[in-house]
Every structure is written in C-alpha cells, then in structure tokens.
Backbone:
C-alpha cells in the first residue's frame, strides 16, 4: 500500500459488492483481451485475474506498478505509462483481437480518456468505466436537456452508452468530493458517413457558444455567410436543440457546399 496522490486522481475503490458488480457487468468471455485503465492498488485487478482472460493494466504511478507486479505477478501485464500515450492498436495487434476496457479512471482525465477511446474505436469492443456521476449523466443526456453537450454528442455518435448504476462517494478511500457512476460504452460497428474531423470542429464551435445561435457558433469557424445561407438548417436554433444525427447532417451539408 502507498499514500494516495490527489494529483493523480487516486481514490481507491473499497467496496467489494461494487467491485463484483462492475466485473459482472463486463460479462467476460473465455480468452477476452482486457485493458484496465489505472489499476492502482489492484482492487479490480484482483478480481479480473480470476477470469480466463488476457489482462493488461496501465498506470502512470510507478508505486502502483511495483505493487501490482509484486502482488499479481505474471497473471497480468503491467505497463507504466500515461494511458493517453498508449497506442491501443499495438495492444490490439499483440492480443490478436478487439479489446475490452475497464477502469475506475482518474476523474481529472475523463474527457481526454473518452476521446482517446473514441479515436481507437476500431480496436475496442466495449468499455465499463467508473466516472463522476455528473459526467456520466452528460454522456447519456438527450437533446434539449441542460446536460446535453459535446460529450453527449460524441459518446452517442461513437457508442451505445448506458449508465449502469450509481456509486456513493463512501465506497472510496480517500473519499472523493463527488458521487460516481459506472457507465457501459458499446462501440458501434458502423458509423454514419461524415467527415469526423469536421464534425468535431462543428460540434465544438457551436457548443463553445452555448446559448448562442448555431450561426454564431459556425461563424467562429470562419465560414462565410454565403456558405451559411445555403445550409438547409434553421441557424437560429441553439446547439442543444440538435440531435446527434442533425449534427452529422449539418456537417455533411457544410462539407458539400465547401467542396462541391
Ligand atoms: N483502479 C483502482 C481502484 O479502483 O481502486 C485505482 C483507481 S484511481 C481512481 C485512478 C488510477 O489511475 C490511479 O491508480 C492513478 O495512479 C492512475 N492514473 C492517474 N493518471 C493516469 C494516467 N495519466 N495514466 C494512467 N494512469 C493514471
């Protein structure tokens, strides 16, 4: 055991029921390739090694890696790294199959970790992730809801996502300031046809000016009025009124006008 470091988001899960519940929700199959984000002191890892799977744990803290190697040994592969620097394609190639992701992740990195997963979606089947409750609610929020935003659009664009259950702050040591929730993200096998880079800039630019009209948001991307005027969309609407599909259609309409 070692002293938790707040700067690394170290809140260790202590509740055996919750640990078991998370593992159960994964429905692990014989031979699955599982990547654990931030195994820490091994609360989830200890359960995972009892399953007939290949397990790879990634933690940035050298104290965690030393402890895990000592207590878990050869039953899993441990990598000391910033998870965002890990190339999931390499792990996919090494395992020869798509990856299943699990983790009680450091909350300060939630958005970055989600986008890191979205970028590697071709190599991932699904993910079961513990995150801050407020963020979990944002992932599943529908349009016209105050929690609907950039994360909702992309979580719902790339995955079928479900809030599985809430977890009280009392289940951790040290106790965090916020409640948590476990979310399942099932990566879609096919996505609508759209220029993803452009979709990201359209969604970011329009939500960047929340409570402003779509026209105002799009203007920050330097699109000329002549382009905006030709869009078959009511640009007086606000970004939170658009469904994920409408964002896709809006992006495709812009692309067609620009590159026609
Ligand atoms: N899985 C353990 C548990 O449930 O008790 C620990 C969870 S703790 C919330 C988050 C873990 O992520 C810590 O072990 C921390 O060292 C690790 N971590 C923080 N930042 C990281 C990063 N950038 N890359 C990889 N691991 C990181």
Residues:
């Amino acid at each position: 055991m070692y002293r938790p470091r707040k700067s690394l988001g170290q809140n260790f899960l202590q509740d055996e029921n919750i640990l078991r519940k998370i593992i159960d929700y994964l429905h692990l199959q014989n031979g699955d390739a599982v990547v654990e984000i931030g195994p820490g002191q091994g609360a989830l890892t200890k359960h995972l090694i009892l399953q007939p799977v290949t397990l790879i744990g990634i933690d940035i803290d050298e104290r965690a890696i030393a402890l895990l190697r000592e207590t878990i040994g050869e039953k899993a592969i441990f990598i000391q790294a910033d998870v965002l620097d890990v190339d999931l394609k390499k792990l996919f190639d090494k395992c020869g199959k798509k990856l299943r992701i699990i983790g009680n992740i450091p909350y300060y990195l939630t958005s970055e970790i989600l986008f890191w997963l979205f970028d590697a979606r071709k190599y991932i089947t699904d993910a079961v992730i513990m995150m801050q409750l407020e963020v979990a609610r944002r992932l599943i929020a529908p349009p016209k809801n105050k929690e609907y935003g950039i994360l909702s659009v992309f979580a719902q664009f790339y995955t079928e996502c479900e809030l599985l259950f809430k977890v009280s702050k009392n289940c951790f040591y040290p106790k965090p300031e916020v409640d948590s929730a476990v979310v399942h993200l099932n990566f879609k096998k096919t996505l609508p046809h759209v220029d993803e880079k452009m979709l990201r800039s359209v969604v970011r630019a329009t939500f960047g000016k929340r409570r402003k009209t779509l026209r105002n948001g799009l203007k920050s991307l330097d699109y000329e009025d002549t382009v905006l005027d030709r869009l078959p969309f009511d640009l007086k609407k606000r970004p939170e009124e658009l469904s994920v599909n409408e964002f896709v259609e809006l992006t495709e309409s812009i692309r067609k006008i620009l590159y026609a």
